[in-house]
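Researcher: Re-running this chain for the archive, since the previous output was lost when a drive failed. Same request as before.
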Amino acid sequence: MKRYFLGFVLTSILTTPLFALDGVAVIDLRTAVLQTQAAKDAFETLEEESEYAGNLEQAKVLQADRQALVEKLQKEAETLSQEEITDIQRSVQEKSKDLEFIVGKIQTKQNETADKVFRDLNPSVQKILSELISAKGVKLLLGRENVLFSDTALDLTDDVTSMLDVASKEGS
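Model: Regenerated structure tokens:
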């Protein structure tokens, strides 16, 4: 009998939706921070940097060149010699490697910019989270990436973004 009761209790606990529990909230900190005006401004500044803009342009050109070669190979494969096919395939591989390298540089700069925004906003984020947790009576705060489903009313992401924007304006 104890086994059945224990099984019932465990089943009840595990199947009770989290949103039915008082004091539970969900947040996506990455989204909250990266949707702020400060983050948007930082990424606009990044796009204006000549090296970054040059890398973006170079990536576009490499992608277009590579695509043109692939299309040529598909259209003319029957009329090209084996040597020409091999040359085109080699060119596609070289352009792919170059593109991969440039995209890596672009992603590195984007990650550096995001990391800087996180570092700059971290004190405000911590303060705002503390205030929201206290004001809303949050006892359990979950990262959105760890939640399969949640009621949007439990999501603090937009609240944090708005409060960060307000704090940023007040600090300016």
